């Protein structure tokens, strides 16, 4: 099992067996989407299970059938976000052309900020608070997977396919620039009267990020 698969498995750990049916998975997805919205708005302590159940369109007992506590639901929502982000990074390998592989990852991270902005804000809130729930995933499977991708980028650099740079800080740069559009949506809207939900704005953000980030790492002629 590679690191990305290991992280995905760790993220799903503890999911109730009864939820692993088609209907159960659909209900669990509704619950997690609702939980992400509520937790990102009110934080762990301010969020209430009843509000999450109402947002998911189900009763509180039905929600608790899938997640027995607020802690379990919060951890699952965070793990789902982390899995959504790292699986595309895990697909990058040394057999690919660097510009195509890194460009695809940048686009998918920006798409995640467009499609699941509350997930990004929830993740940021957890990190700011010291990652009390996420730390085992951050220091375990995520760290291992990032180290693998650093090694891949170093192979590309050694082969002359990328300009010399620090792969770890480059990964941090991708995360920072793509997640900015979700975490600081209010600021983005205040300055531009738009956000990633606008196709033209999304295209402009995507093209600019690809231009700046890829041009910064591709070898000079």
Name the features.
mainly alpha
Short description:
This protein has 221 residues and is mostly helical.
Can you describe this structure?
With 221 residues, this protein is mostly helical. It has a domain at 3-13 and 77-217: Tetracycline Repressor, domain 2 (Orthogonal Bundle). The protein is built from 11 helices and no strands. α2 crosses α5 (70-90). The longest helix is centred in the first third of the chain and has 25 residues, at 22-46. The chain is globular, with a radius of gyration of 19 Å. The model has no long low-confidence stretch (mean pLDDT 90).
What's the layout of helices and strands?
Elements (H helix, E strand, L loop, with lengths): L2 H10 L9 H25 L2 H8 L3 H7 L3 H21 L7 H18 L1 H12 L6 H24 L8 H17 L1 H8 L6 H19 L4
The CATH homologous superfamily of the domain at 3-13 and 77-217 is termed: Tetracycline Repressor, domain 2
Along the chain, the helix and strand elements come as HHHHHHHHHHH
CATH topology group of the domain at 3-13 and 77-217:
Tetracycline Repressor, domain 2
Mean pLDDT: 90
End-to-end Cα distance, whole Å, is 39 Å
Oligomer: single chain
Q: How many helix segments? A: 11
**Which overall shape is indicated by the principal axes computed on the Cα atoms?**
globular
State the name of the first-level CATH class of the domain at 3-13 and 77-217: Mainly Alpha
CATH A-level architecture of the domain at 3-13 and 77-217: Orthogonal Bundle
Specify the helix fraction band. over 70%
Radius of gyration: 19 Å
The count of β-strands is 0
What low-confidence regions span 5 or more consecutive residues with pLDDT below 50? none
The major sheet is characterized as: none
DSSP strand content: under 5%
């Amino acid at each position: 099992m590679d690191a990305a698969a290991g992280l995905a498995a760790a993220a799903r750990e503890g999911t109730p067996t009864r939820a692993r049916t088609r209907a159960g998975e659909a209900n669990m997805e509704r619950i997690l989407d609702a939980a992400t919205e509520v937790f990102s708005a009110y934080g762990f302590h301010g969020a209430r299970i009843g509000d999450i159940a109402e947002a998911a369109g189900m009763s509180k007992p039905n929600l608790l059938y899938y997640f027995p506590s607020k802690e379990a639901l919060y951890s699952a929502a965070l793990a789902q976000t982390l899995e959504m982000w790292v699986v595309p990074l895990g697909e990058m390998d040394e057999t690919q052309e660097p510009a195509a592989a890194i460009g695809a990852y940048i686009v998918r991270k920006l798409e995640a900020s467009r499609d699941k902005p509350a997930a990004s804000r929830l993740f940021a809130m957890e990190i700011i608070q010291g990652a009390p729930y996420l730390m085992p995933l951050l220091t375990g499977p995520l760290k291992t997977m990032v180290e693998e991708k650093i090694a891949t980028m170093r192979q590309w650099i050694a082969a002359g396919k990328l300009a010399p740079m620090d792969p770890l800080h480059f990964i941090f740069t991708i995360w920072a620039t793509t997640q900015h559009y979700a975490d600081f949506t209010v600021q983005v809207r205040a300055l531009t009267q738009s956000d990633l939900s606008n196709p033209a704005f999304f295209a402009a953000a995507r093209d600019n990020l690809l231009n700046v980030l890829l041009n910064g790492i591709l070898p000079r002629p």
